């Protein structure tokens, strides 16, 4: 068995003022850290426990525009609820978030 995994899952965020990350998505297995894939639960944990507190600590959670692609983990219902709790829809750029002036039938 190799000393390190042959693959890695990394997440990073950035603003005009700072870079957040990189964060390596791992879980602790029987023989130590194991790389894992991103799913809705892991992504929600990353946002809830690491990113949002970091933005709050910097005093910019209320002014950050959050942009993400439409990967399935990014649009899971718990993610949408979490982001709506901390960001208004006009500060979330994602196809699955309703934005003022944008109509669903135009997607």
TrEMBL record:
GO terms for molecular function: nucleic acid binding. Keywords: Signal. It comes from the Eukaryota. Residues 1-25 form the signal peptide. The keyword Nucleotide-binding does not apply. This is Tc1-like transposase DDE domain-containing protein.
């Amino acid at each position: 068995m190799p000393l390190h995994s042959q693959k890695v899952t990394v997440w990073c965020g950035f603003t005009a003022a700072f870079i957040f990350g990189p964060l390596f998505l791992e879980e602790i297995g029987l023989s130590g850290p194991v790389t894992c894939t991103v799913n809705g639960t892991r992504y929600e944990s990353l946002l809830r426990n690491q990113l949002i507190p970091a933005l709050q600590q910097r005093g910019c959670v209320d002014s950050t525009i959050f942009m993400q692609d439409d990967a399935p983990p990014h649009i899971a219902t718990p993610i949408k609820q979490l982001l709506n709790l901390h960001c208004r829809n006009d500060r979330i750029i994602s196809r699955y978030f309703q934005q003022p002036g944008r109509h669903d039938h135009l997607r």
